[in-house]
Write a sequence for this structure.
């Protein structure tokens, strides 16, 4: 780490602390040449590999921008979108890999978006999964309905699997 004051090529770590968000480390350093102190903030990098092979840093803002289009006209707040982006980042970081395929980010968006707003989920899934026919929408809606029916059955105290028919 170069000293920002004298540009000396080395520094000594005096103190290290986890930053408030828990995703970075704040280090207090001292330059052995000029003796001045300075702080650094270290974060782990997460690189997104796009279909074209291009690489770029992960951005929560890009997640929010992509999902915001699907949420137009829906009762979804900016805070909801920020939380969704945080959940997506936590999911992709949990993979333990420094590089993640763009496709994996899309998959990580689908679950939290379904919980947030089912209409926005269908909009996003229709583009992300490249729906090409009404049957694609019908399958997605049927899956959502089946999940709703199973939840209602559990809430009502009924088993989610219908009993087998007798002989």
């Amino acid at each position: 780490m170069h000293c920002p004051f004298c540009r000396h090529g080395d520094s000594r770590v005096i103190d290290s602390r986890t930053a408030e968000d828990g995703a970075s480390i704040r280090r207090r350093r001292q330059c052995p040449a000029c003796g001045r102190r300075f702080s650094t903030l270290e974060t782990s990098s997460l690189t997104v590999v796009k279909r074209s092979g291009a690489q770029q840093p992960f951005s929560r803002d890009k997640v929010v921008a992509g999902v915001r289009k699907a949420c137009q006209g829906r009762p979804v707040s900016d805070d909801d979108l920020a939380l969704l982006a945080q959940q997506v980042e936590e999911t992709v970081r949990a993979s333990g890999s420094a590089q993640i395929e763009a496709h994996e980010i899309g998959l990580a968006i689908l679950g939290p978006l379904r919980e947030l707003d089912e209409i926005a989920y269908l909009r996003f899934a229709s583009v992300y999964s490249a729906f090409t026919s009404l049957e694609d929408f019908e399958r997605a809606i049927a899956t959502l309905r089946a999940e709703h029916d199973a939840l209602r059955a559990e809430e009502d105290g009924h088993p989610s699997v219908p009993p087998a028919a007798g002989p």
User: Anything to note?
Assistant: The two ends are 78 Å apart (CA to CA).
